[in-house]
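Incident log, support desk, overnight shift.

02:14 A customer reports that sequence design results differ from what the structure should imply. Their input is reproduced verbatim below. On-call engineer (initials T.W.) acknowledged and began investigating.
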């Protein structure tokens, strides 16, 4: 299927690794010019080199890197100094740490809300009017399956991402946006095989004394698909939501979790 977005410009945040990289790769393979953002330069450089060497990325597709912390005003200014008129924006940053809610002070909450709620809102604010003026736009926020099925130790994430989810549910239905082929959707990952998931499982290894194999096997056994998702399949869904064909899909929370969530909606 031709997604009909070749030649468009995408901003992909948190793009040097994991799910963000999966999205950048899938978009670049559709001939979308991509601006990749992450803080660490070596991994970012490696991600850009990988895309530039990727035979599935059409010739002439531009791959640009911006080393910046997207959760800061300075970081976002650095991105928009490179380009302002993005057709596609994938918002993403690291998730807040797990813990006990009794230990989280105001600073911990502000940090989580800044990264996982206010940063996507700022990015939407900065790009959406240009999209409306040009008559095409796609915003995909990487959130979490925890928005639908909150996990107690991830309270900072549950809270901040739920705030974003509520905001998106309203703004996506703004008639000026939806009527101008500008869509905003959230993609909700379950368990995906990335550094973040591996880090979480290393924590479980230390805590329980089990082997990594045992922790992985137990986690996979809890998922009907009996495996973790891959960044490639996450990216493919993201690219579809950014496609011409997804024009009538907006304000949705799209769960990708191998069937782990047990409910009907
Ligand atoms: P990952 O493998 O750790 O990759 C995170 C990417 O984001 C890296 O490129 C990282 O690079 C970048 N990043 C982090 N903080 C950033 C910041 N402030 N500014 C710019 N870039 C930043 O994580 P992932 O598994 O892909 O997860 C992506 C998101 O999905 C996270 O919010 C995570 O909580 C959520 N999620 C993941 C899973 C899962 O199973 N993987 C499940 C549910 C939710 P630098 O560190 O160099 O900046």
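02:41 Re-run completed on a clean worker. Output:
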């Amino acid at each position: 299927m031709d997604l009909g977005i070749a030649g468009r410009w995408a901003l992909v945040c948190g793009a040097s690794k994991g799910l963000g990289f999966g999205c950048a790769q899938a978009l670049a393979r559709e001939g979308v010019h991509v601006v990749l953002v992450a803080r660490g330069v070596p991994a970012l450089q490696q991600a850009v080199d990988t895309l530039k060497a990727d035979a599935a990325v059409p010739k002439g597709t531009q791959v640009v890197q911006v080393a910046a912390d997207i959760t800061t005003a300075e970081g976002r200014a650095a991105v928009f100094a490179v380009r302002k008129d993005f057709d596609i924006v994938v918002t993403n940053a690291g998730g807040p740490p797990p813990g006990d809610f009794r230990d989280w002070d105001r600073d911990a909450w502000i940090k989580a809300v800044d990264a996982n709620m206010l940063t996507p809102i700022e990015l939407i604010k900065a790009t959406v009017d240009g999209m409306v003026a040009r008559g095409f736009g796609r915003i995909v926020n990487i959130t979490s399956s925890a928005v639908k099925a909150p996990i107690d130790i991830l309270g900072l994430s549950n809270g901040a991402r739920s705030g974003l989810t509520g905001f998106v549910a309203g703004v996506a239905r703004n008639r000026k946006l939806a009527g101008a082929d500008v869509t905003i959707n959230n993609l909700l990952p379950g368990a995906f095989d990335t550094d973040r998931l591996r880090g979480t499982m290393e924590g479980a290894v230390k805590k329980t004394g089990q082997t990594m194999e045992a922790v992985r096997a137990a986690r996979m056994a809890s998922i009907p698909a009996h495996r973790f998702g891959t960044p490639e399949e996450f990216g493919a869904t993201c690219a579809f939501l950014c496609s011409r064909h997804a024009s009538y899909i907006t304000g949705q929370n799209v769960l990708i979790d191998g069937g782990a969530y047990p409910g009907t909606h």
